[in-house]
Specification:
The complex is a heterodimer of chains A (354) and B (257). With 354 residues, chain A is of the alpha/beta class. Chain A contains 13 helices and 15 strands. Chain A has two domains: 6-237, Thiamin diphosphate (ThDP)-binding fold, Pyr/PP domains (Rossmann fold, 3-Layer(aba) Sandwich); 242-353, 3-Layer(aba) Sandwich (Rossmann fold). In chain B, helix 8 links the parallel strand 7 (177-184) and strand 8 (211-217). Strand 9 of chain A pairs parallel with strand 2 of chain B, so a sheet runs across the interface.
Chain lengths: 354, 257
């Protein structure tokens, strides 16, 4: 789908169009709120484009179908929400271990346990620390608008191929459910040729194995070392963030996704009172924009982190700054979204003590 | 009359579907034999270069070293889901899973049932040796009542641990399953029948008819505490009493064995 005009759509729909336009051949999903529009929409859209849609029997099966499809060298995707993403962790570990590309969408909801279906950002640790077993990482992209639900999902496929690694798009119930106008300016890609390494049958006597089993510890350590080099390269080449009015700011808010949207209004409130306030918005949660954040933090009086969680990303803020700057935090949990005013109150209270 | 024997002519050899790797299986285990039957079948059907195998967690975890084809290593029980992904992505490929009874009938029960229900055009080679071999001979869903294992040392007590699952009969209730048969490899005759069953199962896939599964009663002399010969005999006596041999379901309409 390309259009110069803007179209109004839900975030969950936008990412579906991104998958089609990115040349995603296979989608495997399972119903869970608040991401249900994704499998619903793709169940119609994928066959229309001659692609594969399968409603799996579980999130566990869905991620393993992604593993099987990705092994053949094609673009594959699954989507879910927090409890379902927990179920997928075994498969994500295998995909990371076998170094296959794929895209995983997490439209986060409140937790822990069954939690609720309201927006949350409490899967940050799970997403950025690997999530499953073993020393692996997924590249994590955090959209903050319906436009970015499209743009970052498209980029996710390229990044997954670049690093042969799972890439997660971390949305939440707000971003999945809200409607905004978006402009799709990039032309859709035709279906890419399958990767030459795909398990599609032997070619000229060469066979392909997709595997993450290395019985010899030295061999497995070497594989891990190569993977760690890959993650370091992600940090050098594909760390993304956005800064708004950070130059000369007395306080810089640090927030991603929906929390960053709240913070934009908080900025307006505080700026109207004469406070020099900026916003630092990480777009990749892993790799985390630590260097850029450190530079900002060294030139401001206060970094103030806002999350829809008990304080997960704030640990990366502290790690980035290593005590160079005071760090405040305000978070709401369980699907409660803070108002811009209550965030402003929390910032004022913290600023008074700095 | 004179007869000339051409000794330079090779009349038998290793299937091109097998690598030269030395297998790690225990003496008297039938995994190696079944690998050969699968490889020969794929070779005879001339599909080795378009086959993708999915190997399990269990004794056959290294099957990717032995089959001379493209292979994907699946996590425990998930092979049918992985095979679904591969087959849907590459419909022209011949896709099979090779799974043991712990893998398929316990942790992977959801995946095998739903792959069969969807009528996935894959072939499943299901090795039933009535226990978990690789991890040390623990009780499986297929362990016979009274059978001693390392987690049922006094014998499987149905009051505590329930009853063995007849996977083939269970899956045969599903409309997506087209060809399901239970075979053994305890005698030359049984081996020949298994070979024919494998050929039918892969032909079902090549014809696009649906899901096919060959259950093979297999020996585990190591954890059964039997000699290889005793173990082979047991597959066709003790095991076959619980798991009757023969075609369980065939809706191919071709009157296969």
């Amino acid at each position: 789908m390309t259009t110069q005009t803007r179209k109004l759509m839900k975030g969950n729909e936008a990412l579906c169009h991104a998958a089609i336009d990115a040349g995603c051949l296979c989608f495997f999903g399972y119903p869970i709120t608040p991401q249900n529009q994704v499998p619903e929409y793709l169940s119609a859209l994928m066959p229309k484009h001659g692609r594969v849609f399968v409603q799996a029997e579980s999130e566990v099966a869905a991620i393993n179908m992604v593993y099987g499809a990705a092994a053949t060298g094609v673009r594959a995707m699954t989507s879910s929400s927090s409890p379902g993403i927990s179920l997928k962790q075994e498969g994500i570990s295998y995909i990371a271990g076998a170094e296959l590309p794929c895209v995983i969408i997490n439209v986060q909801r409140g937790g822990p346990g069954l939690g609720n279906i309201a927006p949350a950002q409490s899967d940050y640790f799970q997403a950025t620390r690997g999530g499953g077993h073993g020393d692996y990482r997924t590249l994590v992209l955090a959209p903050a608008s319906v436009q970015e639900m499209y743009d970052l999902t498209r980029d996710a496929f390229d990044l997954a191929d670049k690093y042969r690694n799972p890439v997660m798009v971390m949305a939440d119930a707000i971003l999945g459910q809200m409607m905004e106008p978006i402009a799709i300016t990039r032309p859709p890609l035709p279906l890419p040729e399958p990767h030459a390494w795909g398990t599609r049958g032997t070619r000229k006597g060469c066979r392909t194995l997709v595997n993450s089993l290395y019985i010899m510890p030295s061999e497995l350590e070497a594989v891990n070392q190569r993977m760690q080099e890959k993650y370091a390269r992600m940090g050098r080449e594909d760390t993304r963030w956005e800064e708004t009015a950070t130059e000369g700011a007395d306080v810089v808010l640090v927030a991603y996704g929906s929390a960053a949207r709240v913070c934009r209004t908080t900025m307006d409130i505080l700026a109207a009172e004469g406070v020099k306030v900026g916003l630092f918005r990480p777009i990749t949660l892993y790799p985390y924009p630590s260097d850029a954040l450190r530079r900002v933090g060294e030139q401001t009086k206060l970094l103030f982190t806002v999350e829809l969680s008990a304080g997960q990303m704030v640990e990366d803020v502290r790690l980035a700054l290593e005590g160079r700057c005071p760090i405040g935090f305000y978070g709401r949990m369980g699907g409660v979204v803070p108002t811009p005013e209550e965030v402003a109150d929390a910032v004022r209270a913290k600023l008074a003590g700095v | 009359m004179t007869t000339t024997l051409c000794t330079d002519e090779q009349v038998f050899g290793r299937s091109a579907g097998l690598t030269e790797a030395r297998m790690h299986y225990c003496p008297g285990c039938t995994h190696g034999l079944i690998h050969r039957l699968v490889a020969e079948t794929l070779e005879e059907l001339d599909v080795l270069d378009r086959t993708v195998g999915v190997c399990p967690v269990g004794c056959a975890v290294f099957a990717y070293d032995y089959f001379n084809i493209d292979m994907i290593q699946a996590s425990h029980g998930r092979a049918p889901a992985v095979a679904t992904g591969a087959k849907r992505a590459v419909p022209d490929a011949v896709v099979f899973t090779y799974q043991g009874d712990g893998d398929l009938a316990s942790i992977g029960m959801a995946e095998i049932v739903h792959a069969a229900a969807r009528g996935e055009k894959i072939t499943v080679v299901f090795i039933n040796n009535s226990l978990y071999g690789m991890t040390g001979g623990q009780m499986a869903p297929t362990t016979l009542v009274g059978q001693a294992t390392t987690t049922s040392p006094l014998g499987r007590d149905p009051g505590l641990a329930g009853y063995p699952i007849r996977v083939s009969e269970l899956l045969a209730t599903l409309d997506g399953a087209v060809y399901i048969t239970r075979q053994a490899v305890g005698s030359p005759k049984a081996v020949q029948a298994t070979k024919r069953a494998l050929r039918t199962a892969f032909q079902v896939q090549l014809d696009g008819k649906g899901f096919s599964l060959v259950e093979i009663l297999s020996s585990c002399p190591t954890w059964w505490g039997q000699s290889p010969r005793e173990a082979l005999t047991w597959t066709e006596t003790g095991m076959a009493a619980q798991y009757p041999l023969g075609v369980v379901k065939d809706t191919t309409g071709s009157g296969t064995e």
